[in-house]
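#data-curation
PF: Archiving a pair of folding outputs for the training set. Convention for this channel: one message per protein, sequence first, C-alpha cells after, nothing in between. First:
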Amino acid sequence: MFRILRNLILISLIFSGYYLFISEFFYLSENKFLEIEIVKNEIVENKKEIIQEKKEEVALPNTKKSIDKVQYVVKKIKILQGDTFVSILESLNFEQENIYEIISKIENLYDLKKIKTGEIISVFENSFGEIKKIEFFKNSETIISVDLDKEINLNIRELTKDSFIESKEYTITESLFSDGIKNGLSPDILVKIISLFSFDLDFQRDIRVDTVVSISYEFDEIIETGRLEYNDIKYASIIIDGKQLEYFKFITDDGYIDYFNREGKNVKKSILKTPLDGARISSNFGMRKHPISGFNKMHKGVDFAAPTGTPIYAGGNGIVEYVGRNGGYGKYIRIRHNNGYKTAYAHLSNYKKGISKGVRVNQGEVIGYVGSTGNSTGPHLHYEIIYQNKHINPLKLKLPSGKILEGKELESFKKEYKKIYADHLSMLYE
C-alpha cells in the first residue's frame, strides 16, 4: 500500500514538473516572439522614414528656391505652333480678368508677338499648386519675370556671361564644314569662315583633301543657362598645297571691324554684289515694263526674290544715311560708304533693331529683312548701288578693293596681329 502511494506521489510530481516546464516554455516563447515583432516593427518604421527622406532628396532637383528661400516646383512649357501667351495662360486655368492684367503689364515692356515657336516659358508653383511666378526670355541675355505672389509685378533680369577666346586647327578630309563640325567647331563660326574667305576662294573647286584650317574666335557663355554665343573671328588661316591665306581682325581708326593680311591689305571688296543668302534674281538692272504701272521704266537696281524675313546684309562698311518709308520703295535703307559709293535696300518687312540714321554698320552686318512693302508684287529685295549719284548695275560692277592700311594705322595693326597670332599658337599648343 505504501509502495502504491509513493508511486502516485512520484507520478504527480513528474506531471506537475512537466506542466510547469511546458507553461514556462510557452510563456517565454510568446514574449520572445513579441520582442521579435517589436524589433521588426521598429525596423519597418525606420525604413519608412528613410524612404520618405529619399523622396524628398529626389524631389529637390525639381524645385527652385526664390530669394525668400521658398521652394517652387518649376514646370517648363514649350511654345508650339499656334500657341499664344493668352492660350498658355488659359491652359493654366487663369481667370480672364487676371489674363488681361498680366498681358497688359507685359506689353508695357515687351511685344509678346516676338515670342517664337520652340521657346520655353517657366511656371513656378508652390506646394499648394498655386502659380506664383512666370518667366520667359526677352532675348538670349535677358529674362522677364512676372511675379504673381500678392500683386502682379514685372522684373527684368540681365543674365551674366563670361567671354572666351578659343583656337582650333584641323585638316580637311571631306569638306571645310563637315570636318569643322567633327572637330568641335560651331556652325556659326564655320559660316563666318566661309564668308571671310569667299572673296578669295571657290569652295567647290579650291578646297582639297589635306587643306589645313586654323582659327581663333571669340564666344560668350551665359552663366545661368550655359548657352554659347559666337562672336568675331580673331584669326583665320587656310593652307592649300603649301600656299597660305590668313587674315587678322582689326578695328580701324574710323571704328570699323575688318580683316587684313600681314601686309595690311583688306580681305574684303568694298561693296557686296549680293547682300543676302539663297536668293534668285527676279528682275535685272535696266529698262523694263513695270509689273504694276505697266509702263516701260528704268529699273535702277536688281531684285532678289527671297522669303519674307530673310536677313539683309550691309553691302559695305558705312553710315546709315536714311531709314524709313520712301514712297513706292516701302520700308527703305540707304548707306553711305567712304569711297563715294552708296547702297540702297527697298521693300523691307522690317529693320534690324538699332538701325537708325547716323548708325555705323559693318559689311555683312544684318540691317533688315526681306518684305513686300511699297509697290511690290511679292517678297523680294530691291538692291541699288549708287556711285557719285549715278546708279550702277550691281552685277556688272568691277568691285573696288577694300581699305589698305598705311602709316600709324599700319604700325598699330602690326602690333595687334603679332599678339593675336602669339595667343593663337599658345592656345593651340598649351
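PF: Second:
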Amino acid sequence: MNMNDSNETVKREFNVFVALLPLVLMIIAMAVTIIVLEQDPHIPLIFGTAVAAVVSLLNGYKWKDVENMMFRGIRLALPAVVIIMLVGLIIGSWIGGGIVATMIYYGLDLISPSLFLVTIIILCAIVSLSIGSSWSTMATVGVAGMGIGISMGMPPAMIAGAVISGSYFGDKMSPLSDTTNLASGLTNTELFVHIKHMFYTTIPGIIIALIVFFFLGRQFGGADASNPQEIATMMNALNEHFVISPWLLLVPLAMILCIVLLKMQAVPALIVGIVLGFLCHLFVQGGDLASAVSTMQSGYVIESNNEMINELFNNGGLEGMMYTVSMTIVAMTFAGILEYSGMLKAIMAQVIKVAKGTFGIVTSTILAAFTTNATCSEQYISIVVPSRMFLRTYIEKNLHSKNLSRSLKDGGTLTSVFIPWNTCGVYIYGVLSVAPWEYAPYAILNFTVPVIALILAATGVGIQKITDKEKEAFITQYYSEDIEEEKNPDPA
C-alpha cells in the first residue's frame, strides 16, 4: 500500500502542540537516559519513534503509512551509512598499514616548546583529519599534550582549548568523520562539496585560533621546564610497533589527488584509500592476509606498554562503525515519522514565521542545532533532527543544500563541547580533566565558527544560491511523493 492511498490523512494538519509532543517526550527521555542513567541515546530515540507512531495513528494514519514513513526516513540516510562503513574500513586499513602512526610520528617531531600551543593545535588537526575522530585524538595526542603543557607551567584550561580547537577542526573537515558524512548525506549534498563549502567558516576560524594561541603561548616561550621525555616515549613506542616511513604519507596524498585531480566521488576515493592501506599492511608492516582482513572487519588490535598507543590504535574496522550506523537508522525512523506525517511541517510553520530571509534561516538552523545539543545531549541528533526540519525550507528559498549542511556542522558539531551534560562535554571532562566552563573561553574555533557563519549569512558572502530550475529538480528528486500528494488531494 502506497502512502498515496490514504491522502485524507496525509493532508490533515497537526496542531503545533500535538506535533511537539513526540519531540518533547523524546528529549525528556534522552535527558534521563544520558544524564541520570549514563546510557546511550538509542533507546530514547526508539521511545520517541513509538510516541510519534502513536500520535500519527491517533491522527488517522494507518500502520502501513507509519511503516512507510520510517522506511522513507531510513532511505534518506543510506548514502551516509555506506560512507560511514567505508570510513570504518579505511581507518582500520590505515592504522594497520602504519599510515596513521607515520602521520603522528612526524607530527610529534614538530613540537617546539616556544610554540607549543600552536603546534598542539596543528598536531591535533593533522591526527583528527587522518582518522576523522576528535574523541580519539583528544584521548591520545590531547592527553599527551596536557601532560607536556602542564609541565611547562601552562594553565590546563588553555591547553584543553587548544586541543579541542585542533581536534574539532579535523573532525569537521575530514572526509572520514562520521558527523561530516551525516551532515552531507542527510541533506543530499555531495561529501566533498560539503567539505569545500565549510572552508568559508572553518578556515577563518582556525586562523583566528592559531593567532590567539600564538600570542597566548608567547608568555611561556621562555619556559625551561619542558619535558621532552613524554614525546620521546611515544615516538619510541611508535617505532617499536610500526614501520615508520615518509613514503607512507603518499597514501593520503594519493587519495587527495584522486579527489582534486581526478574529480573522484567520495565512495571510489575512499575505496582507493582502503586498498592502499590494505597493501601497506601486507607489504610494509609485514602483516599476514588474515590479520589485514580482520583489521578491516573488527579493527586494529595492539597490546603495548604505552596506554596512549593502545587507546589510539585499537580502533577502526567495519564493526567499530556499527554504533553510529545503528543510531543513524534509529534516529531516521523517528525523523521520518515527524517529517512525513506533517508534524515537522507544523513545527516549521511556526519557525518560519520568525526566520525571515537567509540570515533568519541560517540563524534558526544554528540555534536549532545548539538547542538540540543542549536538550538531547548528543551531537549526532543535533545534525539529524534539524537536517530534516530545514532541508526543504532551504531549497524552497533557493538556497543550496550545502548551506544547510555547513550550518549543521557549525551549530551542531562545534557547540556540543560547551554543554556539560552533552556526551561531548562529559567525554572531554573525563579525558582532559577540565570542565566545559573552564575550557570554554579557550575553545576558540568552536565559538568563533558559528559567529563567522552568522556574519556570512548577514552579508551574503559564501552563501550559495540555486536557480528555480535547480530547485524544481531537487524537489522533484527528493520530494516526488509529497508533490504527488499535493497534486492529487482527496476530494473530500
